[in-house]
Amino acid sequence: MTGFTAASVTGQVGKCFLVTGANTGIGYETTRVLAARGARVLMACRSEDKARLAMEHIRMEVPGANLAFVPLDQADLFSVRECAQQVARDEPRLDVLVNNAGVMVPPLERTVQGHELQFGVNHLAPFALTGLLLPKLAETPGARVVITASLAHMRGRIDWDDLDARRSYRARQRYGDSKLANLLHLLELDRRLRAAGSPVRALACHPGIAATELGRHSLGFRLLFPVAGVVLNSAEDGAWPTLQAATEASAQPGEYYGPQRFFGMSGPSGIARRNASARDAAAARRLWEVSVQMTGIDCGLAGL
Predict the structure, then answer these.
(1) Are 213 and 21 in contact (CB under 8 A)?
(2) What are φ and ψ of residue 146, in 5° steps?
(3) Which sequence positions are flagged as catalytic?
(4) pTM, full prediction
(5) Which residues does 105 contact at the CB level (< 8 Å), separation at least 6?
(6) How many Å apart are CA 76 and CA 114, to the nearest integer?
(7) 222 backbone dihedrals φ, ψ, rounded to 5°
(8) pLDDT tens sequence across 64-85
(9) Whole-angstrom Cα distance, residue 133 to residue 55?
(10) Which of 22, 97, 150, 152 is the most exposed place for a label (fewest CB within 10 A)?
(11) Mean per-residue pLDDT over the chain, rounded
């Protein structure tokens, strides 16, 4: 088998990872593998009960796994700020921030701050959390930010005049838009980190099409679950691109990783394809500026 898999992950003893949405799906599998390689993993989740249950399951496989719960509700920017403050205050180091948590095609809902839920949870929260934790990450040589995008970015189209879906809402389109926003975030974050001479590296990944709870709002997606592991990824396999972006020594800043089989839907991880919209530098800069306004969080990286 060629490409990156969980077996490719080397020892991570002494390193600290923050994984959002770590109690289920890709986040859980990422956490499980990192813990098995000796890492300390901060599980940033909405539900402490679900996080604790996930910890119990991991410790059945990895006795003594170094795991900790951090409260995080990505639908509330106040919670995002509190999460970052707790990590910066309590953790001696932070090597990798894995922005994994997200929502997919729910009915129209809004975040606590009134933003359309998918754009808020999938883009604005990771944008804010990343910005708030960059100073902490910069304390550790080789630190990384991993942003989780999706094949759905291919259909994304940022509606600059209706980011909060006040005029119209189509769930699938808004999901694709939020995933395009993830890759534009990567593009501009990578550019700004390089310009600032920061030691932090930014990378992105996507899991292909994996059978996880993320698709619970989509009937079509749920109908595909029975063939997961044949044409699609299991949650375990879907974590491989995340693990590659987070741990591979040769992973390149600004790069995008994903499954290599069935048009990017499954298989071991490698360099993934992104469309022209995800490489639009002007759109990436504009989204950054808009995101600063919407979140009230500016990490201080100059837009030179």
Answers:
(1) no
(2) -115, 125
(3) 175
(4) 0.93
(5) 118, 171, 172, 174, 175, 215, 217, 218, 221
(6) 9
(7) -65, -30
(8) 999 999 999 999 999 999 999 9
(9) 24
(10) 152
(11) 94
Question: Phi-psi region for residue 7, left (φ > 0), alpha (ψ -120 to 50) or beta?
Answer: alpha
Amino acid at the residue 89: R
- Look up residue 6 and give its two tokens: 């969980």
Domains in the chain: ranges and CATH = 13-295 (3.40.50.720)
* Digit-coded pLDDT (tens) for 23-44: 999 999 999 999 999 999 999 9
CA distance 201 to 40: 20
11: how many CB neighbours lie within 10 A of its CB? 11
Q: Which of 108, 209, 224 is nearest to 166 (CA)?
A: 108
